[in-house]
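Q: I have 371 residues here and want to know how they pack in 3D. Can you give me a structure?
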Amino acid sequence: MTDIEGLCEPRFAAVRAALAASLGKDDVGASVAVYLDGEPVVDMWGGYADTGRSVRWERDTLTAVNSTTKNMTALCALMLADRGQLDLSAPVAAYWPEFAAAGKESVLVRHVLSHTAGLPVLSGLNAVEDLYDWQGVGARLAAQAPEWEPGTAAGYHALTFGFLIGEIVRRVTGRSLGEFFAEEVAKPLGADFHIGLSAEHDHRVAPLIAPPSLTDEYASSAPPGPDGTRREHTGPAIRVKHANSVAWRRAEIPAVNGFGNAHSVALVQSVLANRGTAGGVRLLSPQGCEPAWQEVFRGEDRVLRTPMSWTHGFGKFGNTFGWGGWGGSLVASDPDAHMTVAYVMNQMIDREQQEDDRGMEIIMAAYSGLQ
């Protein structure tokens, strides 16, 4: 049986059991955390940081959380809006004048946050290395025409989400998204989460492990729609080998290249679930949190090919909001219960070959502790 370490209040014993079951079946190494009223009630980890199962997963182990990073990027935008520095209903071009080109003068900040801006792909980029050129990507996005009238449809902005929000943050603050997050979010909270990872942390990184029977050439893609068809892939194919590379760690790709663990993910996102504070630190006003669960769009997502509800930066699922990452990590927050649940792992699962209910089992177990 895999040893599990960390904090677990007795009423959340079901979360420990769910983590143990996952480590005994699909997971190599993983961490889970539950925050209630801005304080940790579960903070556990177990398993191994490597495929050879020779390096233990520790409390401070970090790994790539892929699109779970989007939750952090969205929080930065909401903080600026709460401070009066960013108007969610203003045109993006009010902050980024060049962006008005090619018919994008009507794209609003809330369209970017809700995946309704009509810019779901980066046209003309074929190599992952191109994503490391912030100025180049920004120039391409500024010149690109929207695929649909902004605000009228949604299509998951898998990579563009982070570059769009990140450039808005840079224009408003003079700092990159990673710098703003580090200084205004991670530092005051003491959160061990990074968008752009420096070399001093490399020794703590647990590389992602490709799904069973697949190699590190395994690439991310939008899931097929209900009819089995999938959107044509037009951007660079991001593979496991890229997410595990040093170049990926050093870059800032704020939609997808955050590094952290369940403790840090839950700590940061619990700020929104707990009306702006966590651990006694206030980052937003209570009202400033509300856009996180206020629906902007409901309908069929053109990229995901499934019905979606998008808020200002998050997916909405019933009473919860949040988002997950390629391979299995996720975070979900319930503003009514003031609860946030996070799950971060290194073993990826390909949902086309195998059902992945690991994160959902953790979430359901957390809810059982509230009863």
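Q: Anything worth noting?
A: The first helix runs from residue 13 to 25. Confidence is low (pLDDT under 50) at residues 225-229.
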